[in-house]
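in:
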């Protein structure tokens, strides 16, 4: 008697995949463009500056829960402390929290109830990722971006334009809530590139100056340490991994994510006969 067992092999990173791919629906060329959009958006949420300056989500959320105002200056300071690391962290944080500049800085309101945009996303199922994406408001998109990107109106406007391009416009329904209306036609490379080029061309050079030599020297030093340690610090890596140490990788099986449909090009149904 022949028994056939089918196992789903997931390839790629879940938070970078298109909604259709995560739902197990047929995937076409324009869904790959959507994947690129999600990747670009997650970069704006997790990169707090050039040369792998990573956002400190854990400390941000801890301070927010304690009633501390979250401001662009605070987000930047936490990212700098996290990136530099070392024994000076607590001292630097105390100085930052009590600085006059931080107190004058305007409040920022990230929605920390959307864990799919930050490290730890691997604990979510594909359906949970899709659900969080589809219920994000324009305000969520704007406020989840780091100040490094959000300071540029061209980037803010461009991200929202890309969001509408792939998810469709939002309209208020009878229930009083906003819902996305699916796009009327597939997204093309030309449409997406035209938006990306507008973002590039509208960024004011004076607002995006190149880092000074001191910043570059520290970045080279960090990169040299990461090469020696083997810690590459990928975009959606777990928090609190010190440079100079390796963290054992962990993979989650598709079955643990509740996946029972294969659809994306590159996923294969592997059959074994017993």
């Amino acid at each position: 008697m022949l028994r056939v067992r089918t196992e789903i092999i997931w390839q790629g990173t879940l938070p970078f995949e298109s909604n259709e791919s995560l739902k197990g629906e047929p995937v076409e060329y324009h869904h790959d463009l959507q994947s690129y959009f999600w990747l670009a958006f997650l970069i704006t949420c997790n990169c707090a500056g050039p040369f792998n300056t990573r956002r400190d989500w854990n400390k941000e959320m801890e301070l927010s829960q304690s009633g501390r105002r979250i401001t662009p200056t605070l987000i930047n300071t936490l990212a700098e402390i996290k990136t530099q690391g070392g024994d000076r962290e607590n001292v630097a944080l105390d100085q930052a929290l009590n600085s006059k500049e931080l107190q004058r800085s305007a409040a920022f309101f990230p929605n920390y109830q959307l864990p799919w945009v930050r490290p730890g996303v691997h604990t979510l199922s594909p359906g949970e990722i899709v659900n969080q994406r589809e219920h994000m408001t324009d305000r969520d998109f704007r406020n989840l971006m780091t100040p490094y990107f959000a300071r540029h109106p061209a980037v803010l406007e461009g991200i929202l334009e890309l969001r509408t391009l792939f998810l469709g416009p939002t309209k208020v329904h009878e229930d009083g809530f906003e819902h996305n209306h699916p796009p009327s036609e597939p997204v093309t490379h030309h449409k997406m590139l035209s938006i990306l080029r507008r973002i590039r061309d509208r960024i004011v050079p004076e607002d995006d100056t190149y880092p000074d030599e001191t910043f570059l020297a520290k970045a080279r030093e960090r990169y040299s340490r990461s090469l020696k340690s083997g810690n590459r610090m990928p975009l959606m890596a777990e928090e609190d991994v010190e440079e100079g140490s390796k963290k054992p990788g962990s993979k989650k099986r598709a079955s643990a994510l509740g996946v029972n449909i294969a659809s994306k090009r590159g996923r294969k149904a592997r059959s074994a006969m017993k």
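note: The mean pLDDT is 77.
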